[in-house]
Specification:
mainly alpha, 31 helices, 5 strands
Length: about 650
């Protein structure tokens, strides 16, 4: 196993960083010396022993066989499907055979698309191979409609140029459970390509790149494997990046045979990647002299990357060149750090690509303190569920003095270690007052860090054991909010019943929590329109900006979900429009999103919704943008997803139960 070394800082002990290969491979041998002009000439022998990871296995099969894995875990507790399709839609039996897609509606005489028969990572999820009969590789997919896919005709009614443009900038990973879920399903669904000419980039390559950007490297490898050896340079480059992220050098270097070297690495991103991967594979195979020649050629071509030259020179010849500290670490960068056996920067957890977080968590040499920070970031992106986050919160050890002096500890309040300490303290607390305080503190600190949803799941076992009672009444708003967030409406109602309307704070909590309950699962046919409209109008006329923003968001979400409000609401909203805040997407984008929903263009609606909401989630965009996404998702029969998005948007504007 190979590992990186990480600089120690403060409480963090020096720790290694291993990229563990989790994709078991029995495939073609590395052809690095034959496939690329920048590789060693034919017949050139390595200057040293070839590492085991790059040796060919002449007895192995030519097929790629993913190693067995544990199935994907729910991101949230039972009852809320924010990040997995299984809880947001009815489950169906596995299809008897692989799904089939045909170009332009013409049915082929043989199975034409390679599909996984189950959601990646689940039991019995081996790849089922069909025969390609001239089908565009873009039709490849891993999930069927029964498994959460968006349908083989999801691009119907969309233009290829538009889809290429929006898909290439898909905002992943997002700070939104429902948006991450929709993005993953969009990228893994096999479908007929949209009509029209492409921009010259493979749709499959775009999907692979966005999966990697989202941190879903195993899914990217699985999707790339469905097309076998019939892949272009962009697809091969995506497979190589995903393989490097997982520490599979042989699979990464094997992709070089499909990546042309190019002649302008200074301006051509593909040529630059080819140079870097060539150098990496040459050094890993022991061809350090050829690697030095590759570096010299890259310099002559004007490629400017001081960090690359520094790391590659150290790995190839032991020469240390000065380079500025990076503010971002790519997959290729970290691969060279490992190859050079150089310590990663002290802030590696904060600046590595999301695709590398899970490798850090799996590395036994990485310190527990660093793993907590990496686990929080992975959980925020939907790459780790709350129960696993809880396991990492339990790892750090704190002294009795630190635990006893939680509020006066020298550990910074906003740090991941402080949140781990709060988590551990909850299970140790016995007195009701202390547990109330710690729960509220945990929720409040998590919300400010963008970790509310995974924290609710991490604390779910402890919260579930809490029985509503008068002694726990101060916890009621926070507990109700948590249960609403995960879709357990009956439990939320139990806690809501504790809240009296006597006090001003509790009265406001009741008002907003009731609104959250209505958006999360209320019926448009059986709600009191007059009463609800009057409450919204009163809030809009209150003059309090936070109250006005909540009421405006509530009105827009309700309308998008089909609830009918009185005209007085819209008159009051017009007067209070100055209180509305948030990023405003281009008007043309919102109009296009509305049109996509009206024409039932499922894929385009999901894609444009993701673009309109953005990477920061629905809490940072103008309520109108969230409402349009909700309305359009509902129009294409994604009712559950529309509800969850509306709830996320409204919770971001609600102060009830924040702790």
């Amino acid at each position: 196993m190979t590992s990186f070394r990480v600089k120690s800082e403060g409480r963090f002990a020096a720790a290694g960083f291993a990229l563990i290969a989790s994709f078991a491979l029995s495939g073609a041998p590395v052809v690095a010396q034959e496939a690329n002009m920048l590789q060693a000439p034919t017949g050139m022998q390595p200057s040293g022993p070839v590492p085991e990871s790059l040796k060919s296995d002449s007895s192995s099969s030519a097929n790629l066989a993913p190693a067995g894995e544990a199935g994907p875990r729910r991101i949230v507790p039972p009852g809320y499907g924010a990040t997995t399709p299984s809880s947001g839609m009815p489950q169906a039996e596995e299809p008897a055979g692989p799904s089939q897609f045909f170009p332009a509606g013409k049915r082929a005489s043989e199975p034409s698309v390679r599909m996984l028969s189950a959601v990646p990572g689940q039991d019995n999820s081996g790849i089922q191979i069909g025969t390609l009969t001239g089908v565009d590789a873009s039709t490849a997919g891993l999930i069927s409609a029964q498994q959460g896919g968006l349908g083989t005709d999801m691009w119907q009614g969309a233009s290829r140029a538009d889809i290429d443009r929006y898909l290439s900038r898909l905002p992943v990973p997002a700070r939104s459970p429902v948006m991450n879920d929709l993005a993953r399903r969009l990228l893994l669904t096999g479908a007929q390509p949209p009509e029209g000419a492409s921009g010259g980039v493979s749709l499959l390559a775009i999907r692979l790149n966005r999966l990697i950007a989202a941190g879903q490297t195993q899914a990217a490898l699985d999707l790339g494997a469905t097309v076998g050896n019939e892949r272009g340079p962009a697809v091969a480059a995506g497979i190589a990046r995903a393989a490097l992220a997982q520490g599979d050098d042989r699979l990464a270097c094997d992709a070089l045979k499909d990546i042309p070297p190019g002649n302008d690495p200074a301006h051509d991103a593909m040529a630059a990647f080819s140079v870097k991967l060539s150098a990496y594979c040459q050094i890993a195979a022991g061809n350090t002299e050829i690697a030095s020649l590759t570096l010299d050629l890259a310099r002559e071509e004007g490629m400017d990357d001081a960090l690359f030259y520094s790391l590659a020179s150290e790995a190839a010849a032991g020469i240390t060149l000065r380079a500025p500290e990076p503010n971002k670490l790519t997959i290729v960068d970290t691969a060279f750090y490992r190859l050079a056996d150089r310590e990663l920067p002290e802030n590696a957890v904060e600046i590595v690509e999301p695709a590398l977080l899970q490798s850090m968590l799996a590395d036994p040499s990485v310190s527990d303190e660093m793993k907590v920070a990496a686990a929080e970031r992975a959980a925020a992106y939907g790459l780790l569920d709350g129960r696993d986050l809880a396991a990492f919160y339990r790892k750090p050890s704190f002294t009795p003095e630190q635990m006893a002096g939680l509020l006066t500890s020298d550990i910074p309040e906003s740090s991941s270690l402080r949140r781990a300490m709060i988590f551990q303290s909850i299970s140790m607390a016995a007195a009701a007052d202390e547990r109330i305080h710690l729960f509220k503190l945990a929720f409040a600190t998590a919300e400010s860090a963008g970790l509310y949803y995974p924290t609710v799941e991490a604390l779910y076992p402890e919260l579930d054991r809490m029985v509503p009672s008068d002694a726990l009444r101060p916890l009621a708003p926070a507990a109700a909010r948590a249960f609403i967030a995960i879709g357990e409406r009956s439990r939320a109602q139990d806690w809501l019943s504790l809240i009296s309307s006597g006090g001003q704070m509790l009265g406001r909590d009741t008002r907003e929590l009731t609104g959250l309950m209505r958006v999360s699962g209320g019926s448009p046919q059986s709600f009191d329109s007059e009463k609800t409209s009057a409450e919204i109008v009163s809030d809009l006329k209150s003059g309090v900006k936070a109250t006005q923003l909540y009421a405006a968001s509530e009105a827009m979400m309700l309308e998008a979900l089909g609830f009918q409000l009185t005209p007085a609401v819209w008159d009051a909203l017009l007067d209070a429009r100055g209180a509305l805040t948030g990023d405003v997407p281009p008007e043309a984008l919102l109009n296009r999103l509305q049109a996509a929903g009206q024409k039932n263009a499922v894929g385009e609606t999901v894609l444009l919704s993701l673009d309109a909401i953005g990477q920061k989630g629905p809490g940072t965009v103008h309520p109108r943008a969230s409402a349009q996404a909700v309305a359009s998702l509902k129009a294409v029969n994604l009712e559950s997803e529309a509800r969850r998005l509306a709830l996320e948007a409204l919770m971001a504007r609600s102060n009830a139960g924040r702790g």
